[in-house]
Amino acid sequence: MKKGRKSYDLGGSVELGAVNAGFEADEDARKAAEAAAAANANGVHKEVAVGEVQGDEPERQQWSSPVEFLMSCIAMSVGLGNIWRFPFTAYENGGGAFLIPYIIVLLVIGKPLYYLEMALGQFTSFGCVKVWNMMPALKGMGYGQVYATGLVLTYYCSLMALTVFYLYSSFAATLPWAACDDAWTDGAACLNSSATAQQQNISGTTPSAELYFYKFVLNEPKDIFDGVGAPDWRLSVCLLISWVAILLVIIRGVRSSGKAAYFLALFPYVVLVILLIRGCTLPGAAQGIIYFINPQWDKLLEPMVWYAAVSQAFFSLSVCFGTLIVYSSYNDFNHNVHRDAVIVTSMDTLTSLLAGCTIFAILGNLAHELDKGVDEVVKGGAGLAFVSYPDAIAKFDWVPQLFSVLFFLMLFTLGIGSAVALAGAVITIICDQFPSFRYSYVATAVCTVGFLVGLVYVTPGGQYVLSLVDYYAVTFTVFILACIEMMAVAWIYGVDNLCEDIEFMLGFRVSAYWRLCWGIITPVLLVVILLYSLVRLEPLLYNKVEFPMGAYSAGWILLAVGILTVPAGLILQMSREVRARRDAAVARGAEPEALPWLPVSGRFWSFWGSVVAASFRPNALWRPKAHKHFKEWVEFKEARARAAARANEPRWIRYLRRFTGLPFPGPV
């Protein structure tokens, strides 16, 4: 080994400075950092050039307290999906029996991914793009996550706009959807939502709450073959209010969003408890709750139930969107993210159960009032929040406006908590790439662009567009990127390296549960579920209506854009590696060799194989950001490498350790 270079185990035998030119630059930066630290220790101020590593902690915002981080994660993970997606998904997939696959999936996929992303962000203090200094070839995956996050953010805010509209309408002397109005019934047979079964019972009619939502609020067409229409000015104003609220929370980064997190995380629970207490006092509430939790055991044998459990756990926790990595990057290096990951994932599950009982208690009352079965009054997705629940509230005989205000204010608060995390992820990526940009300016620009893009979702055909974007550009994109992320970390960087990094950061060994999940269970299950979903793939429908062929094509194009960021990032990194080698040859005074473009010789495979391998090795910036932690980490990894060398283990044991992260039994 050349003098001045250190070696330590990073997914195999990696020599700092060998092959990857980035390590050579890191050696110079480290020397400059040591010189700067020595000068600062002697009371001498020394300027360090751009690109060098400061001897002290790099300037970066941090949470004011660990509780702020915990509250922010709860506000992010507990969102609109817990209120209207989980109850309907559970009801549709076996009721109480659905909890069994859901909890199993949460334990082997949801929790491991949550902890993994928290640990990665905190270790490097970078967002979801630069965290892939671990494997520069996969930086494109970080951009793919930002792409999906940006799309989610734009349509998520359009749902918040609907909650603002209903919140404003709830202050009326009489709830506007409680009675039919010829202005928006459009000749349809309408039944007043305030009416009970004893007061009015006409078959073949539609509740006024449903007509109010689709005909008056959305003004939704039967299809979008003639286009989606122009943005509705009322919903556009509500959308603007939503984006202004988000901007006010994130304008100063985690310094402002951290303070707001206490309210955003706790207020929804206050409202949920109030609504649950009120719901349980209503006639028929017990019938609704029993219907929600009553297990249908035969459903456990259906693969689609397990797929639904994975989808719910996956997207409820907001994993693989980059938000967790960003939030944890603002932590202190030694913060106990293991504890926070367990708390937040458990809280998310309990919140879903609480919301399910609350919603179905009130829907049970609705079924009782209409003298119908619970299954006849339940609607999925946004219909649960904007049709079924308003329909039930309209029948309250005691201040229905109060409970309507509380419900939609709770929804808006939940939406803000999740949207702030999504917007923060996008802003952090931009600020990481361009450190000279002011955070407040970037935040304003992101919110402005998000509002303009979001106008397409407040058109009459906006819900069609939302379904299309969510299905193709978000769900599939994030799921595919999650598979790549998990396999890359577990099988290329190595679970052994990951566990050592976490052990150094937190001060205790990673348990066998996390190692086995990261090394085998989670990546294998993700791939199996992805393949199953592709086999069962069917054309998307909205309210049983097909999309135009052009819309399906647009959906596949959106999906392709998100996925192609991965191979594009690989090609870009390989070109950088080749250029670095040629520059190194010129620096040595040698003539750069011609690149072997055709696979007609052994040199082609050896050259490009080494380029690919180097592109997947950690670069100079995969390290703790603080110089003190960096030096200690290098010493820690060297000690582990020496212990492994002394053990002289068989190759199969070394591979087993790589895939499972089993601890080294000897002294270190």
Automatic annotation (TrEMBL):
It is found in: Membrane. Pfam families: SNF. It comes from the Eukaryota. One of its GO terms (cellular component) is plasma membrane. Na(+) binds at V78, N82, S316, L414, S418. It is a multi-pass membrane protein. GO terms for biological process: amino acid import across plasma membrane. Keywords: Amino-acid transport, Glycoprotein, Ion transport, Membrane, Metal-binding, Sodium, Sodium transport, Symport, Transmembrane, Transmembrane helix, Transport. GO terms for molecular function: amino acid:sodium symporter activity; L-amino acid transmembrane transporter activity; metal ion binding. The chain crosses the membrane at residues 69-86, 98-116, 146-168, 233-251, 263-293, 305-330, 342-363, 405-427, 439-459, 471-493, 513-534, 554-572. Its main location: membrane. The keyword Cell membrane does not apply. Unusual broad substrate spectrum amino acid:sodium cotransporter that promotes absorption of the D isomers of essential amino acids. Neutral amino acids are the preferred substrates, especially methionine and phenylalanine. PANTHER family: SODIUM-DEPENDENT NUTRIENT AMINO ACID TRANSPORTER 1-RELATED, SODIUM/CHLORIDE DEPENDENT TRANSPORTER. Belongs to the sodium:neurotransmitter symporter (SNF) (TC 2.A.22) family. This is Transporter. It comes from Gryllus longicercus.
